[in-house]
Amino acid sequence: MVSLKSALVHSARFLSSQNNQTHVVYIRRTLLSRVTGFKRTEGKLITFGRQSSSTAAEKGEDSFLKWFLLLIPATTFGLGTWQVKRRQWKMELIDGLTKLTTAEPIPLPIDPAEFSSLEYRRVKMRGKYDHSKELYILPRSPVDPEKEAREAGRLSSSGETGANVITPFHVTDLGITILVNRGYVPKKKIRPETRMKGQVEGEMEVVGVVRLTETRKPFVPNNDVERNHWHYRDLEAMCQVTGAEPIFVDADFSSTVPGGPIGGQTRVTLRNEHMQYIVTWYGLCAATSYMWFAKFIKKIKV
Q1: Is residue 168 within 8 Å of residue 238, measured between CB atoms?
Q2: Where are the domains of the chain?
Q3: pTM for the complete prediction?
């Protein structure tokens, strides 16, 4: 009996200890599932929580992308507006040059230093040409102001080439010699002996437009002084060759004589492509604005 009683006591203690351990395991599993976001079902772990952090990160990335892409239509709108202002400035500049080249001519100033502020200003003077020291700026095509206004900015050519004839002109009342661009001659008429009727003699009045010296542009050849082939207007070098003062005047069309150079070769038409840029930038602004609206507001896949 004693042995049976002791066996029952030991069994009860063992079962009690097992029940306590089972409760502890259950409590631990419950706590673990609540902390980690997993739930055991039929021997499997199922995730049911802690996904909010990744969703928030994705929403943050979408928000950044949304406002970052909005910079594209905003930038193109700004560029289009800037081109509107540039076009207005260019039109005012062209209008100012046109007024200068069509204004009443003033007498040629005595002081050469005054010419730095008189470019494109019309002047008049009396004197005599020295045809023995002609210079030739080439290749040149004849100026057609109306055509150039229509085709400003295009890479086109009239197909006709020749030269502008630069001739020293002794101004009688001032006692100085200046350089006058008498105008355009075709290639076959560059040599003076081919246009003797145009080599006018005697004193005459010349009206023209003041021009300043030029700097050589990229891809423009250097002037060949020995061959008398000039590719840009270098007043310092030209004056050294002819002995003239550094004053240069483009004779107007009224100076043209039969058989001589064609006057009025002043190019005052400036490139004005701003309207094309305006259409381009505003068009890109409209297109990208619609794509942004469709993507982020209407939620349409684009």
Answers
A1: no
A2: 62-106+271-290, 121-145+159-267
A3: 0.64
| Mean pLDDT of the 192-214 span | 94
CA pair distance 153, 156, nearest whole angstrom: 9
Sequence-distant (6+) residues with CB within 8 A of 177 are 130, 168, 169, 170, 171, 242, 243, 244, 245
Tokens describing residue 216: 């050589």
CB 210 within 8 A of CB 249: yes
Burial class (CB in 10 A: 0-12, 13-18, 19+), 84: middle
pLDDT at position 113: 78
Q: What is the DSSP string of 146-198?
A: HHHHHSTT-----S--EEEEEEEEEETTTTEEEEEEEEEEEGGG-SGGG-GGG
CB 292 within 8 A of CB 70: yes
Per the structure block, which two tokens stand in for 199?
A: 């080599």
- Retrieve residue 188's tokens: 């076959």
Q: List all residues 6 or more positions away from 159 whose beta carbon is below 8 Å from its beta carbon.
A: none
Cα distance between residue 165 and residue 140, in whole Å? 10
Kindly report the backbone phi and psi dihedral angles of residue 158, in degrees, each rounded to the nearest multiple of 5, phi listed first. Answer: -75, -15
Tell me whether residue 38 is exposed, middle or buried, using C-beta atoms within 10 angstroms of its C-beta: 0 to 12, 13 to 18, 19 or more: middle
Give buried/exposed letters for 244-276 (b at 16+ CB in 10 A, else e).
Answer: bbebbbbbbeebbbeebbbbbbbebbeebebee
Q: What is the mean pLDDT of the chain?
A: 79
Higher-confidence residue of 114 and 239: namely: 239
